[in-house]
Amino acid sequence: MLIIGIAGGTGSGKTTVAQAIVNRLGAPNVSLISQDSYYLDRPDLPFAERASLNYDHPGAFENSLLISHLRTLKDQQEVDVPVYDFSQHLRQRSTVRVHPRPVLVVEGILVLADESLRNLFDIKIFVDTDPDVRVLRRVTRDIEERGRTLESVRRQYLETVKPMHDAFVEPSKRYADIIVPEGGLNEIAIGLVTSRLAQHVKDMAEQKGRP
Fold it and tell me: Are strands 90-98 and 2-8 parallel, antiparallel or unpaired?
């Protein structure tokens, strides 16, 4: 199994790059995990307190569980990934079963900021997109998909998103093997990455077919 970590700021196009890999290699060859699924579950806190937590700090994630799941998948065993409800800031009771496949893609803003997590990646990618583009995408996503108000998105961006990006996300770029400017719009970079992965999948298939 080849494990790929895709990092980048909020709205940079990480998910688009990850989906491009799935589309190029075919769903049967790729498992996809988002770091967002591993936000710490805090049912002990009332909604107002959960809403005010800093979700852009490395400590907001249960990376120990994510690391455990990646190792389990690498051992060719399936895992049950949490489902996070962004409107309530809580994990749902349901989970999503993820199966081991030739390529595993892990995407999230801080997947390259944690050394223990970073060391599990065979290929580390950072998606680098202009801040103005990222913030516009963030506003649209949070309002349309996560039930947020414009004021709450504005406040969160100024109080935590931008400071945490400058402190943790941007510095993690130095650990990347590949930097993809302009995210999903960079068809040349995505093509180069997916071509390398396609060859890996082909090599694995040939090895399985040998007596």
Answer: unpaired
Per-residue pLDDT reduced to its tens digit, 6-18:
999 887 888 888 8
Q: Which fold has domain 2-192?
A: Rossmann fold (3.40.50)
Measure the CA–CA gap between 186 and 17, rounded to whole angstroms: 9
Tokens 């223990």 belong to residue: 116
**Cα-to-chain-centroid distance, residue 184:** 14
Q: What was the pLDDT predicted at 209? A: 56
Say what the pTM is. 0.84
* Angle, vertex CA 78, rays to CA 206 and CA 12, nearest 5: 85
**How far is CA 96 from each of CA 33, 74, 79, 114, rounded to the nearest angstrom?**
10, 17, 8, 24
Mean pLDDT of 114-129: 92
CA 201, CA 101: separation in Å to the nearest integer? Answer: 10
